[in-house]
Design a protein that fits this description.
A hairpin with a 2-residue loop joins strand 5 and strand 6. The chain folds into two domains: about 5-165, no CATH class; about 170-375, no CATH class. It has 15 helices and 15 strands. A six-stranded mixed sheet has the order 2-3-13-7-12-4. The protein has a three-stranded antiparallel sheet with strand order 1-9-8, with no helix packed on it. A two-stranded antiparallel ribbon has the order 5-6. The chain is of the alpha+beta class. It is elongated, with a radius of gyration of 27 Å.
Length: about 375
């Protein structure tokens, strides 16, 4: 393998308030060759603490998730990675009448100890996790890269801070709602469509109780659950890995039979793989209709201190749904409301027990509700 000694890039020059940068396209594996990951850290220097670097420490879990994503059939990174290049490593030349940005190592002509190797020409200002995901793979996408030349560390830090502070986290309910635009089938789209039906069917126990985009709907009162909460409750009953199953659908158009062990963990998967989402909807409606019938006062009370119709109640109940379902059947089928009701009747919980005093907000309250329901079933 021939070692690269320089990099010639076509570019568009962009001038903004911060200064000028150069917008280029660089193959991922080439970008990895020139970039160093400049993590924020503390070092001792003569008894004084020095804060070095700009980037947050790499989150390996996040890198792994991005790496899984870039292996999917229709993955993309439309936004730019931002890097900074030492001015001693950058120059401009004209080839065939077209100007090029040339990046190459630097060695001081007087002091040979002052040098910048090829793997060190650039440091990453923004996009370290995206780029690191390509490491140790043979995936070599063209990446959009914005190159700053000769800016000081303070300016680099300012750009990093501003870019990340300006990025408002997208509402999860909105993200799931956008799956309705997906042309193919996927676990997220199925879960989204089930939620839409739960919220719009007048006979559903969740009729007009779900905030579609995570915020209240004008003219509707009593929306106690966000779409994201309900989708996240349903998804684990369909799939272990939504991204992987979405990609399987894109690549081959169908999903494999995963056997009894998987069914006992993901009771909705057999219906999903056979395009029988209506049966998933029927199971959820039958179960929560039984809940509504068993504890009508707690289900209808949505005021301060209520639990059953809100996030904690839903999270505890949807988790218990799997236990109740497997208590009734060992193969894919749709139990009736009456069958679920007989299971719930085994519980000694009263309407008045469903309060935040007994089931406090947060995962601990939902887990406690699940345990109370499960213990009555055993």
């Amino acid at each position: 393998m021939t070692l690269r000694t320089n990099l010639e890039l076509d570019f568009l020059e962009v001038t903004q308030e911060v200064g000028t940068f150069y917008s280029c396209t660089v193959p991922a594996q080439v970008l990895l060759e020139i970039c160093q990951f400049d993590f924020r850290q503390i070092k001792e220097n003569g008894g004084k603490k020095e804060f070095m670097g700009i980037q947050r420490k790499l989150d390996e879990g996040r890198v792994s998730k991005i790496r899984d994503y870039i292996r999917t059939f229709d993955a993309c990174f439309p936004t730019s990675i931002v890097i900074s290049v030492d001015e001693r490593c950058a120059s401009f030349s004209v080839f065939d009448g077209k100007q090029k940005l040339i990046l190459k190592p630097y060695e001081d002509p007087i002091d040979s100890e002052i040098k910048i190797p090829f793997r060190g020409i650039a440091s990453i200002i923004d996009g370290q996790h995206r780029l690191k995901a390509f490491d140790e793979t043979n995936i070599n996408w063209d990446l959009s890269v914005n190159v700053f030349v000769g800016i000081d560390e303070g300016t680099q830090a300012m750009i990093f801070s501003k870019v990340n502070l300006a990025q408002t986290r997208v509402n999860s309910s909105l993200v799931y709602d956008l799956f309705s635009l997906d042309r193919g089938r996927s676990p997220e789209k199925t879960a989204h469509e089930i939620v839409i039906n739960l919220n719009s069917i007048e006979s559903s126990p969740f009729f007009e109780r779900i905030r579609r985009l995570g915020s209240a709907t004008d003219g509707i009162f009593g929306e106690t659950l966000s779409q994201a909460t309900v989708v996240k409750g349903i998804l684990p009953l369909i799939t272990k890995d939504p991204l992987k199953d979405r990609d399987i659908g894109r690549r081959i158009g169908f999903w494999p039979d995963r056997g009894q062990d998987d069914f006992e963990r993901r009771i909705f998967y057999p219906f999903f793989r056979k395009d029988e989402d209506h049966r998933i909807l029927a199971i959820i409606i039958n179960f929560f209709d039984a809940v509504k019938e068993r504890w009508p006062e707690a289900w209808d009370y949505t005021g301060k201190g209520s639990v059953l119709p809100k996030t904690n109640g839903f999270n505890g109940l949807i988790r218990f749904l799997r236990d109740a379902y497997l208590h009734l059947t060992s193969s894919p089928s749709v139990p009736t409301k009456e069958q679920f009701r007989r299971i719930l009747d085994q519980s000694d919980l009263k309407d008045t027990d469903f309060s935040t005093d007994r089931y406090p907000p947060g995962s601990s309250g939902a887990a406690a509700l699940y345990r109370d329901l499960r213990d009555n079933l055993l």
